[in-house]
Amino acid sequence: MPENGEYQKNTILITGLNGYLAGRTAELVLREGYRVRGTVRNRPAGEKVKTALLQLGFCSDDIDVLEIPDICRHGSLDDAAAGCIAIFHLASPVTEIWTLPPSEVVRIATESTARVLSAAVRTSDIVKSVVFMSSAAAMFDMPLENRLYTEKDWNTTSEQIVKLEGDKAGGFHAYLASKTAAERAFWQFRDSHRPSFGMTALQPTYFIGPPLIPWKTTEEITYSNIDFWKVVAGEEIPGPKMIYGDTIDIRDVARMLLWSALHPSQSDGQRFVCSSAVGGGQAIADILSRRMPSLKIQRGQPGEGYSPDYKPQVGVGAFDSSKAVSSTGEDWIPYEESVVDMAQFLQRYLS
């Protein structure tokens, strides 16, 4: 990193560069002609991402990897944000929801968001946008109501449950509370500081799609993608996901991140639900039976449990992403395309 703090004005900072979404986001940012600066807690994880990007043909000079062991430390991101035109705050405690006390998960999420915004203020002469990766988890209370959720909805109970129940609140409420508290802090900052840069939050549902860096083993496949592996591997067709069935391709979320950053006049102050399809195990099996017949797919109950257009079925809790589609003028990646891409990616794990 240059000691004088001078950077090209086309650099975009991505926190949590080694994350599932971040890799594809970095790829898109580079493909669109911008530089990437990514933060990681340990450098080897970031260097793996850089290596993968270099293998795609991108230039080493356009990729900075910064090790920041504790993103919650005051001033931790000030140097990283210097000279950046946008910040994508993707770093978030996810696996930690099962290992850390729920209150600690909430603290990390909110304090890291505060550090991002503090760094943005220090570089507000250059930074144009800060995009916060929230979650559909910030939009509903448990159990999910049987209706369509929109950007107007908020989780109203999980933070209080964590405060009252402590460690007994569990990982689900820890995650819901952390996403809700961090996003509320994000908007409270905008209300109180009225910064010169745009501020946008995205609420994605379950992430699907091929990662930039392959998982080492099938045990590392994320929960949101495990149904794809079970079907490709010829296992019994999996049942419904926990809580809801909505999904979104990470390549679409990456596109929404970049669009939000580059269109602050349209995205500033906005929440955008990102949710493209409701499929599930049976839908995946039916699609792959047609599109990739060489795979040994179990039949299950063809056509059952999902809509032919992969939209939410009537009478179930789901998410309305029409605002994002109308704002950007671009629809999501077709579900069948995501399914085939994932299956082709996962074939590498078949023995």
TrEMBL record:
Gene3D superfamilies: NAD(P)-binding Rossmann-like Domain (3.40.50.720). Keywords: Oxidoreductase. The keyword Oxidoreductase applies. One of its GO terms (molecular function) is oxidoreductase activity, acting on the CH-OH group of donors, NAD or NADP as acceptor. SUPFAM superfamilies: NAD(P)-binding Rossmann-fold domains. InterPro entries: Epimerase_deHydtase, NAD(P)-bd_dom_sf, NAD(P)_dehydrat-like. Residues 12-271 form the NAD-dependent epimerase/dehydratase domain. Belongs to the NAD(P)-dependent epimerase/dehydratase family. Dihydroflavonol-4-reductase subfamily. This is NAD-dependent epimerase/dehydratase domain-containing protein.
